[in-house]
Amino acid sequence: MQEYLQIGVITKPHGVRGAVRVFPTTDDVKRFKAGQEYILQTRKGDIHVKVEKVQYIKQFAILKFEGIDTPEDAERYRECPLLVDREHAVKLKKDEYFISDLIGMEVISDEDEKIGVISDVISTGANEVLVIEAYGGKVAGTILAKGHELLFPSIKECILKMDIDQGVVTAHIMPGLLD
């Protein structure tokens, strides 16, 4: 498991006082609060930043950090990820997971066939979809090419068990899923 979780990416400076526009990469867009500390992952290493002021404009958070006071200062952090440690991450409910914890998990069928590895998660609005890079070979009577991408809906009828500690997802192969 990763020690830090990405919650946003700085897109560009905003205004003349050193604020930055942040594209949130978290489900809780309003999670940014004045007084909170985050980790800014820069090209030269991680730095700790404290939020002085927060605004929300459309889907963006406008953050003013202490010590970053000019547009030139802010420009240095363009495209830098904003991270939080697990202790300060949002609390998950039962059967909720951080996407970063799912990436790389092995997927096996309920018939104990090795299917592949989760390479991405797509949010569709209705549910998430697990992108699985197939190992290749025969699964549920279908021959899969190595590296072929499979899309499994993250619904209880398809994803039977997620064992984060073991790094294994057990899935039921629904009719048409491998076609």
Description:
This protein has 179 residues and is mainly β. The chain has two domains: 4-88, RimM (Elongation Factor Tu (Ef-tu), domain 3, Beta Barrel), CATH 2.40.30; 99-171, Roll (SH3 type barrels), CATH 2.30.30.240. The protein has helices at 71-75, 99-102, and strands at residues 4-14, 19-24, 37-42, 45-57, 60-65, 81-85, 106-109, 114-123, 128-134, 137-139, 142-144, 149-153, 159-163, 168-171. The strands form three sheets. A six-stranded antiparallel barrel has the order 1-2-5-4-3-6. A six-stranded mixed sheet has the order 12-9-8-7-14-13, with no helix packed on it. The two termini are 32 Å apart.
CATH topology of the largest domain: Elongation Factor Tu (Ef-tu), domain 3
Which range best describes the helical content: under 10%, 10-25%, 25-40%, 40-55%, 55-70% or over 70%?
A: under 10%
* Shape verdict: elongated
Total helical elements: 2
Please state how the strands of the largest beta sheet are arranged side by side: 1-2-5-4-3-6
The biggest sheet amounts to:
6 strands, antiparallel, barrel
Q: Radius of gyration over alpha carbons?
A: 20 Å
Stretches where pLDDT is under 50 for at least 5 consecutive residues are none
Mean pLDDT level: 92
Count of discrete domains = 2
| Straight-line N-to-C gap | 32 Å
CATH superfamily of the largest domain: RimM
Give the oligomer, counting copies of the same chain as homo and different chains as hetero.
single chain
CATH domain class of the largest domain: Mainly Beta
How many strand elements?
A: 14
